Amino acid sequence: MFRTMTRVPGGLMLIPLVLGSVIGTFAPAALDIGGFTTALFKDGALPLIALLIFATGTQVTMRTGGPVLATTGVVLLGKSLIPGVLIIGLGAVTGPEGILGVSILALLSAVTNSNGGLWLAITGQYGRARDRGAYIAGAVNDGPFFTLLFLGASGLGQIPVVAFIAALVPFVLGVIVGNLDAQWRETLAPVPNIVIPFFSFALGAGIDLGEVASGGLTGIVLGVLITPLTGGLVYLGYRLLLRRGAESGIGFAAGTTSGNAIATPAVVVAADPSFQAYAAAATPQIAACVLVTALLAPLMASWALKRSGADPARDEAAEAAQAEEAQP
């Protein structure tokens, strides 16, 4: 089963995510029986992601720290900042109603954030340590932050600084531990393959396929556009700014919508009730984007890498082996 899952682009996350959403939609009571079952398969996503973040931090050495920060900046630029500015520009013309039935609230919520767990899954399968370390971008743009930031002119600019600090602490601790003790770094290296299927199932259990369906054609079309457009911007950043050449295809892994974005309209409405009129339509549209982009991003990233003949993960492993052999 494991070999089959790894043959599917992003399969370690995608297959459990879809399975969890099916069970969470049609048999949710099965996950509510309590005990270890509920703790692992319904409520386990956050602690498992936190463990993955810590383990990822241990793999970032002082040698790779600079590239990690550069990669993180490129991901944020292509995935959040440029799209956010463009959406706000559209809002200046159309007003909060947006375009073609998709409000500015829905656009900002779905477009400017990314699925950090899926990024880790894809970069764990195809990328280098610097790519996996750039999960920090997902910690920053996941949830309502950029939506509130870009709507700040409307009085919604309450930036949750403490939340970002809390998201970064496991990663920073991991970096410290991994640089102080190489044995910890080696011990935690297999963590991604262990925890990704489990937290993916738990995330999927929170996605109601009924809400995805009610998002209709607009949500599906938006999801189809998000991966090539925002992932394409990150791809260009990889190629033009990071000079990653044939490895730039990994940038398409950023073209996703985080599951946490489904709650963003409610957060915005709590800050400014005037957005209530748009929240009802925005929520199912965003849910559709979560599922559609989770399907498309791994496919586009793997296609782009295969087309260029690149395998960053394999090359990095070979380089590490050569470095060990060269040591006296």
Automatic annotation (TrEMBL):
This one is known as 2-keto-3-deoxygluconate permease
Keyword Oxidoreductase present in the record's keywords: the answer is no
Chain segments annotated as transmembrane = 12-33, 45-62, 74-93, 99-122, 134-153, 159-180, 187-207, 219-238, 250-271, 277-297
The record's section on Pfam families has:
KdgT
Top-rank lineage group of the source organism: Bacteria
Similarity section: Belongs to the KdgT transporter family.
- Keyword Lipid metabolism in annotation: no
Which keywords does this Swiss-Prot/TrEMBL entry list?
Cell membrane, Membrane, Sugar transport, Symport, Transmembrane, Transmembrane helix, Transport
Q: Which InterPro entries match?
A: 2keto-3dGluconate_permease (IPR004684)
